[in-house]
Design goal:
Layout (H helix, E strand, L loop, with lengths): L8 H4 L2 H4 L3 E5 L17 E4 L2 H12 L3 E6 L19 H8 L12 H19 E11 L4 H12 L4 E8 L15 E8 L10 E2 L2 H4 L4 E3 L2 E7 L19 E4 L4 E3 L8 E3 L15 H6 L4 E5 L5 E8 L1 E2 L2 E2 L1 E2 L4 E2 L6 H12 L10 H11 L7 E4 L6 H13 L4 E6 L4 H14 L7 H5 L6 E8 L14 H13 L14 E4 L3 E5 L5 H4 L8 H7 L6 E6 L6 H6 L2 E5 L11
Parallel strand pairs: 2-20, 2-21, 3-4, 3-19, 5-18, 19-20, 23-24, 24-25
Antiparallel strand pairs: 1-21, 4-6, 5-6, 7-17, 8-9, 9-14, 10-11, 10-12, 13-14, 15-16, 22-23
Helix pairs in contact: 3-5, 5-6, 10-11
């Protein structure tokens, strides 16, 4: 498989590994409602560099995100974005000297800088995405070719789904030099093509208009049973070539010839060439009530099946198309909605919530508690789309937004606050009333430097360190809160039980109470045959005693490392 190469790649390809963890620090005053009980499992808005924000999410959300939507800088040369990742290399250091200067069209290394910015972020997004998850990336012609190669390398080209063309500006951009562009793209990949499935969507009004016939079961459209694809025929599908007999008095069909059913029909095309049916004999027999024959103007009988508009009380579905031209996804709608919420236009080029809702409909289900992540949150459109779709289909989806710019609170989070409270002047009834859903607001704390714990600097909470230890030891996130600190147990995998002896108290950490002793081992001991990873500052037990208790001792702070990779 071709690999993408760009200046600086050798320095940033492993940057996401060496990037320090940061503790997520809650800000109750900026959460909604203000001073609410905040929790990491809530809807989240995180203020801070999105690279560090994604790393900080790993202990809680690794492998748990069902859908990722991002709208990164398109690198048009006019966006004013700066490359400022603190990577330790002479080349990157040279770039950082000019980090205050936006990457513009005259920068001959702007594509390299953009790829250096995107590479570690896509790596972390890949780790956060669930095995059955999907990622959608809005992009235009400036970087679509580079992004395809980048995604092929990290996600695997076999996990590519589609480069969806989306018409966001039907009138076209008049400032374009040669052609007035009307479209952008939504690049779509899944984590694992063998585990992922994108859902079909309900048919729209135009598609529903095809169902012109009706019987006791409801509206239907007739679909010819003959396979019209010329690739399939009697030679390569012999089991799908057989006669079907029709009763010309009532147009009913049968697989058996008798006095009533005496006219044979074969799957022949207009030239008389042998094709095949779409159904085998067993399926025809089982679903014969759905089939009927019709005498065509060509002088031949044809067999049709009834495709009903409603199946099991649900509207019929279809595969989403790879060309999106709905008027509702136009950028103009995003601008109008944002202006309606704030009373002015506080953000350039906000996306329409309907664009993101289309991504959500094909990647998430309403009753599955799916988590949606947007690490280039901008004006908060993704949160708005999640809440609006939840209101529409009574869903339980949650969102996580990460925004690094200084408007994270005054724009991104403020939009979410306003639409939850309700916008009195809004035309839309839902927006006017408000969604009345909560979110927790977090900031990135100082670096989670485990080596400084015993010095008493920036001591994390027991909960935070538990999640960090569990993730770094196992490679998976700790989904449940730690409830029983007295017995030191924090979680388990199929292979290990993990324990932590710790208090965010420097006196405790420097005392013998923080060590693994025989008495603590007795508390930890249970009937489980799983190996026990015990993290503590020191131990007062011999290796023989540890073996007797089935314990692997991991010393804080130096021994936190992955001992098991899922």
């Amino acid at each position: 498989m071709p690999k993408i190469d760009f200046k600086g790649k050798q320095f940033i390809s492993s940057h996401h590994y060496v990037l320090p963890f940061r503790e997520l620090v809650v800000d109750k005053k900026k959460s909604f409602p203000k001073n609410k009980e905040t929790k990491i499992e809530d809807n989240l808005i995180i203020e801070g560099d999105n690279l560090h924000g994604l790393k900080a999410l790993l202990p809680n959300y690794s492998g748990r995100i069902k859908c990722i939507y991002i709208d990164p800088p398109y690198n048009t040369g006019n966006e004013g974005w700066c490359y400022n990742d603190n990577v330790n290399s002479p080349l990157i250091r040279e770039w950082l000297k000019n980090s205050a200067n936006p990457v513009d069209r005259e920068d001959l290394e702007r594509h390299d800088k953009w790829l250096c910015m995107m590479y570690p972020r896509i790596k972390l997004l890949h780790e956060l995405l669930s095995d059955d998850g999907a990622i959608f990336i809005s992009i235009d012609d400036n970087e679509i070719a580079n992004l395809r190669l980048l995604m092929d390398e990290i996600f695997g080209e076999y996990n590519f789904v589609s480069q969806i063309t989306v018409q966001l500006n039907p009138r076209g951009r008049t400032l374009d030099k040669f052609l007035a562009k009307t479209h952008e793209y939504v690049l779509t990949y899944v984590k694992d093509i063998n585990n992922s499935s994108l859902f079909e969507v309900e048919k729209n009004e135009t598609q529903q208009s095809d169902y012109k016939y009706e019987d006791k079961k409801g509206k239907y459209r007739p679909l010819e049973l003959r396979n019209r694809n010329p690739v399939f025929n009697r030679k390569n599908r012999p089991n799908l070539f057989f006669p079907i007999y029709v009763n010309k008095k009532n147009n009913q069909i049968s697989l058996k010839k008798n006095k009533e059913f005496n006219i044979p029909i074969l799957p022949l095309n207009s030239k008389g060439e042998e094709g095949c049916w779409t159904w085998g004999q067993e399926k025809v027999l089982k679903n014969s009530s759905l089939l009927f024959a019709k005498y065509a103007s060509t002088g031949n009988w044809r067999v049709f099946r009834k495709d009903y508009l409603y199946k099991n009380s649900s509207l019929a579905t279809t595969k989403e198309k790879a060309l999106w031209t709905d008027k509702s996804i136009n950028n103009e709608n995003g601008k109008e909605l944002l202006s309606e919420i704030f009373g002015h236009m506080p953000f350039d080029y906000p996306k329409s919530i309907d664009l993101i809702k289309k991504c959500l409909r094909i990647s998430t289900r309403n009753q599955s508690n799916d988590i949606i992540l947007d690490s280039f949150a901008g004006s908060g459109t993704t949160a708005h789309a999640v809440m609006d779709l939840n209101h529409e289909d009574n869903g339980n989806r949650k969102y996580i937004l990460v925004e690094m710019e200084d408007y994270a609170n005054n724009l991104t989070a403020e939009r979410v606050r306003l639409i939850n409270k309700g916008v009195p002047s809004a035309k839309n009834k839902i927006l006017k009333k408000g969604y009345n859903k909560s979110f927790s607001y977090f900031k990135l704390g100082k670096e989670f430097n485990i080596d400084s714990i015993l010095r008493g600097n920036n001591l994390p909470s027991y909960e935070s360190l538990s999640r960090y230890v569990f993730y770094t030891a196992t490679g998976v996130s700790l989904e449940k809160s730690v409830k029983n600190q007295q017995k030191y147990f924090i979680g388990k995998t199929n292979f290990y039980e993990i324990f932590l002896i710790y208090k965010p108290d420097i006196t405790f950490l420097r005392s013998n109470d923080s060590a693994l002793s025989y008495e603590k081992a007795e508390i930890i001991k249970n009937s489980s045959k799983l190996k026990k990873l015990v993290f503590a500052t020191s131990k007062f037990m011999s290796q023989k005693q540890l073996d007797e208790f089935n314990i692997i001792f991991c010393q804080l702070p130096y021994a936190i490392h992955k001992v098991f990779v899922k």
